Every structure is written in structure tokens, then in C-alpha cells.
From TrEMBL:
InterPro entries: DCN-prot, DCN1-like_PONY, PONY_dom, UBA-like_sf. Pfam families: Cullin_binding, UBA_4. The keyword GTP-binding does not apply. PROSITE patterns: DCUN1. CDD domains: UBA_DCNL. SUPFAM superfamilies: UBA-like. Residues 50-238 form the DCUN1 domain. Keywords: Ubl conjugation pathway. Neddylation of cullins play an essential role in the regulation of SCF-type complexes activity. The lineage of its organism: Eukaryota, Viridiplantae, Streptophyta, Embryophyta, Tracheophyta. GO terms for molecular function: cullin family protein binding; ubiquitin conjugating enzyme binding; ubiquitin-like protein binding. This is Defective in cullin neddylation protein.
Length: 247
């Protein structure tokens, strides 16, 4: 490489934090124009994010000193650095991108793979991505995926069902996004009438109920194939006068 091109490689690596190999790839693709190389680099998240050295550094910053995992303390520090509350729903969206198996834990593979999928290789870029991660909840298909993911993610290890307390907390978090007017009635109903763990089927069916049945229950079919618990909820709403159903 000539002196001028070597300088460009150096400059590119300094500004983007990319490896020499990636710098050369971007500069060659743009005919050695620096501006074009930056455009090329940032338009390819799989290239720009795969600065594994940076990703490893970020993981190592938060992992436990004596294990290859990020645990509660590391997650708390990460939230601090991202300037978000640990209870913020955006942390659920991040965990979904990371395909995390368990709440408040990330393996090295989950964390680094997640950062690659989000397309960030620094905490500053990560912070800048939060608004677009939050906006993913407005997409119905992504919301459904995140909703279904939340059931497995929030379960106690080794359990098939979700404890009632955890399920209610997750529903309050998720349906606050959807402004479902019957949310508090549903949570009260479960505590009064059900008081048991929540199965995956109930979890999935409730989303269908929220999406398809209007809050006045005018399109609720008593003969429909809803789970027994949802039929009971409709009875509870009617008996207590929370909803006036037209006969």
C-alpha cells in the first residue's frame, strides 16, 4: 500500500474501531474514498458490528469475575451505563435480541450475538439504538415474538409454568404498551379466582383475546374455543358490572 492509502486505513480504523481487514474491505469497495468507505461500513451492520475485539471487551466489562456469565450485578451496571431502569421494557427487547434463556443472565454467546444482531459495538452506539429497539414493540409481529419469548425468559429454571406473580408483572409491563383497558381487572381476577401458576397456553391465548376481543366484549362468543380461564374472566367482568354485555 502507498503512504496515502496506509494513512486512510489508519484513519478509518481510528474512527470506526474496525479491524485492518474490515478497513481494507470498506476502502477497496469504495475505490479508496474515505467518505464512501464510511457509508459502506455503516450500511452493513454485520460488518460494522462484528468488531469482535470490542464486543469481547464490552462482555468482559460486565461479566462475573469468577464465571463466564453476566449476572444480576453486571446487568445492573449495564442498565446504569445505558441510562435505563432495569424494569424498563427495552431490557426485555434487548434480551429477546440476545435470545437470552434466563432473565438477568447473559452467556458470552448470547450477549455478543445479541450485540451483533442489534448492530452495535460500543455502549454509546448501544444507547443510541434504544429508541429504535423500543419502537419494535409497535410492530405487531415483533410484539407477538417478544410476548412469546417473555414467557420462557421469565420462568424459574426447571419450571414449565410461570408463577402468577411473575406473569402479572410481565403482563403489566407488556400490555402497558398496548393500553389494554381490562388489564387491571384481569390481574385482580387471577389473584381472586385463580391464584395458580400460568400455563404457556393461557399466556398465548390471552394475547389472542387482547388482539381480537373488544374491551366491551361485544364480539365475544360464549361458544368460542377460549380456554376455561378466559370464559371465567368474562363471567367475572359481567357479574361485577365492569362490562355491560348486550344480550
Amino acid at each position: 500500500l502507498g503512504r496515502g492509502n496506509r494513512d486512510k486505513v489508519q484513519q478509518f480504523m481510528t474512527i470506526t474501531g474496525a479491524s485492518e481487514k474490515v478497513a481494507l474491505q470498506a476502502l477497496k469497495a469504495s475505490d479508496w474514498h474515505l467518505e464512501g468507505a464510511f457509508d459502506f461500513f455503516y450500511s452493513q451492520p454485520q460488518i460494522s458490528a462484528v468488531n469482535t475485539r470490542h464486543l469481547e471487551d464490552i462482555f468482559n466489562r460486565y461479566k462475573e469475575p469468577d464465571s463466564d456469565m453476566i449476572m444480576v450485578e453486571g446487568v445492573s451496571q449495564l442498565c446504569n451505563d445505558l441510562q435505563v431502569d432495569p424494569q424498563d421494557i427495552v431490557m426485555l427487547v434487548i434480551s429477546w435480541h440476545m435470545k437470552a434463556a434466563t432473565m438477568c443472565e447473559f452467556t458470552r454467546q448470547e450477549f455478543i450475538g445479541g450485540l451483533q444482531s442489534i448492530g452495535v459495538d460500543s455502549i454509546e452506539k448501544f444507547r443510541g439504538k434504544l429508541p429504535s429497539l423500543r419502537a419494535e414493540l409497535k410492530d405487531d409481529n415483533k410484539f407477538r415474538e417478544i410476548y412469546n419469548f417473555a414467557f420462557t425468559w421469565a420462568r424459574e429454571k426447571g419450571q414449565k409454568s410461570l408463577s402468577l406473580e411473575t406473569a402479572i408483572g410481565m403482563w403489566q409491563l407488556l400490555f402497558a404498551e398496548r393500553n389494554w383497558p381490562l388489564l387491571e381487572h384481569w390481574c385482580q381476577f387471577l389473584q381472586v379466582r385463580h391464584n395458580k401458576a400460568i400455563s404457556r397456553d393461557t399466556w398465548a391465548q390471552l394475547l389472542e383475546f387482547v388482539k381480537t376481543i373488544d374491551p366491551q366484549l361485544s364480539n365475544y362468543d360464549d361458544e368460542g374455543a377460549w380456554p376455561y380461564l378466559i370464559d371465567e374472566f368474562v363471567e367475572y367482568l359481567t357479574e361485577n358490572g365492569f362490562v355491560q354485555r348486550k344480550k
